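Fig. S4 source data, part A: sequence.
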Amino acid sequence: MCFRPAEMSMNVCAACGASNKPIATECAACGAPLKMKTTDFDADQASLDAAARPAAPAAPGAPKAPAAPKAPGA
């Protein structure tokens, strides 16, 4: 099992677009309140693992019905 350090992303202000520290509660540039976002790293890793797995082969389709016999002389 691979252990990696927790990743921290910058908290971007919705009002002015400035990057703030992940723990900031208000924007350092404009003072607007910032939404605290939480990241579920386990869920992120699970989605990355699922994307890396090859897709299962498609199931074979049902057989087609036999064609109707042709009319005589046709």
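Fig. S4 source data, part B ends here. The first strand starts at residue 11 and ends at 12.
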